[in-house]
Design brief:
- By secondary structure, this protein is α/β, with parallel strands linked by helices.
- It has helices spanning 15-24, 61-67, 82-105, 142-158, 176-189, 207-220, 238-249, 258-265, 267-274, 284-288, 297-305, and strands at 5-10, 31-37, 50-53, 71-74, 112-116, 129-130, 163-167, 170-172, 192-195, 201-206, 226-228, 235-237, 253-256, 278-279.
- Strands 3-2-1-4-5-7-11 form a seven-stranded parallel β-sheet, with helices on both faces. Strands 8-10-12 form a three-stranded mixed β-sheet.
- The longest helix is centred in the N-terminal third of the chain and has 24 residues, at 82-105.
- The relative contact order is 0.14.
C-alpha cells in the first residue's frame, strides 16, 4: 500500500459534499480527510472524519499548515439571495479565493486543488457541442457566482499552482434543483413540470456518480486540466427528462411559461432551467475508465424519485 493521501475538503457538507464523504469512507485506508464544516452541520454524519468549524471567508490557514494536505477539494460557495445578494456573495468569495491562493503560493509543498464548478458557466449553446476549450458565457445563477470562480480559472490556465477544475452538469439528487423544481412541484401540484417548450439539451448525471467521478479525479486527474464530468449516455432534451419522470410517477406533464417562473423564482431560475447545452470532453479515455452506477436516464430517475 502507498502513502496515505491527505485531503482537505471545503464545502464538504453541501449537496455534492455529503455524497462525496459517503463514498470516501470506502477508501479510509487510502485517504486521510479533514472537513471544514459550518456550525449547523449534523456532526453525527461526520464521525469518520477530522472536522473543524469554519468557512471559506474565514479559513484558518494555521489549520491548513498543520494538516499539510496533499490535495484540497474545493466545493465551497458563499450564497446570496437575489441578483444583488449573489453578486455580493460572489465578490466576497472571489476575495476569499484570492486570499487562499496567495497563501498556497507561500507553501514549499503546494497541494493539488480540485475546484468543483458547473456547466452554467458555458452558457446557452443551443444545438452546439461544448468541450473544455469552449469560451465561457455564464447564464442564470452563474452570472454572479462565476465571479468567485475566476481566480481558480486563471490559476489553472497559468499553471503556477497545481489546479484541476471539474465541471459537472445537471446533477440529479434528492435535494438541490431537482427537489425545488421537480419533486416538490409534482408532490404539491400533481403534475410534472416542463419549462418552456422542453427542447433544451440537458447533460445529466446521478449525484452518486458525480461524487464517484470526483474521486476518480482525485486518483487520476492531471493538474492544469479542466474536466467536464457527465454521463455520455444521458444527454437528453428536457422534455425527454420530464416525460420519463411522468411515466415513473404516473402524473401528467405541465408546461410552465416564462412569466410564471420569473414571478415565482426569478429570472435567473428561468435562464438556468431553459439554457441548452450538449457536453463532450477532451479526456474521453479518462471518462470511459469510470464505471457508472446509474448508467441511463431511467436508472437515474428511479434512484431519485422514491
Amino acid at each position: 500500500m502507498g502513502l496515505v493521501k491527505k485531503i482537505l475538503i471545503l464545502g464538504g457538507t453541501g449537496f455534492i459534499g455529503m455524497s462525496l464523504l459517503r463514498q470516501l469512507r470506502k477508501f479510509h485506508e487510502e485517504f486521510e480527510v479533514l472537513v471544514i464544516a459550518h456550525r449547523n452541520t449534523p456532526y453525527e454524519k461526520l464521525e469518520d472524519f477530522n472536522v473543524f468549524t469554519g468557512d471559506l471567508a474565514r479559513l484558518d490557514f494555521d489549520l491548513l499548515d498543520r494538516f499539510q494536505p496533499d490535495m484540497i477539494i474545493h466545493m465551497a460557495r458563499l450564497r446570496g439571495k437575489g441578483v444583488t445578494g449573489r453578486y455580493l456573495a460572489a465578490r466576497i468569495g472571489s476575495l476569499a479565493n484570492k486570499r487562499l491562493i496567495r497563501h498556497l503560493y507561500g507553501l514549499s509543498q503546494k497541494p493539488v486543488v480540485i475546484y468543483i464548478s458547473g456547466t452554467l458557466v458555458y452558457g446557452d449553446h443551443g444545438q452546439d457541442i461544448v468541450d473544455e476549450t469552449s469560451p465561457l458565457s455564464p447564464v442564470g445563477y452563474s452570472r454572479q457566482y462565476s465571479i468567485a470562480e475566476e481566480p481558480w480559472v486563471m490559476e489553472c490556465r497559468k499553471g503556477s499552482l497545481p489546479v484541476i477544475i471539474m465541471r459537472p452538469p445537471w446533477i440529479v439528487g434528492k435535494q438541490s434543483w431537482f427537489k425545488t423544481f421537480f419533486t416538490d412541484l409534482l408532490l404539491e401540484e400533481k403534475k410534472v413540470p416542463v419549462y418552456g417548450d422542453g427542447s433544451n439539451w440537458m447533460p445529466l448525471i446521478d449525484l452518486e456518480d458525480c461524487a464517484g467521478l470526483i474521486i476518480h479525479g482525485i486518483r487520476n486527474g492531471e493538474p492544469g486540466k479542466i474536466y467536464n464530468i457527465f454521463n455520455p449516455s444521458c444527454i437528453v432534451r428536457q422534455l425527454e427528462f420530464s416525460t420519463a419522470i411522468s411515466t415513473a410517477v404516473n402524473l401528467p406533464l405541465y408546461y410552465y411559461r416564462e412569466k410564471e417562473i420569473v414571478k415565482r423564482y426569478g429570472k435567473a431560475a428561468w435562464e438556468s432551467l431553459t439554457f441548452s447545452l450538449k457536453t463532450k470532453t477532451m479526456h474521453i479515455e479518462w471518462l470511459n475508465s469510470f464505471k457508472f452506477g446509474f448508467p441511463d436516464l431511467n436508472s437515474i430517475i428511479i434512484n431519485n424519485i422514491s
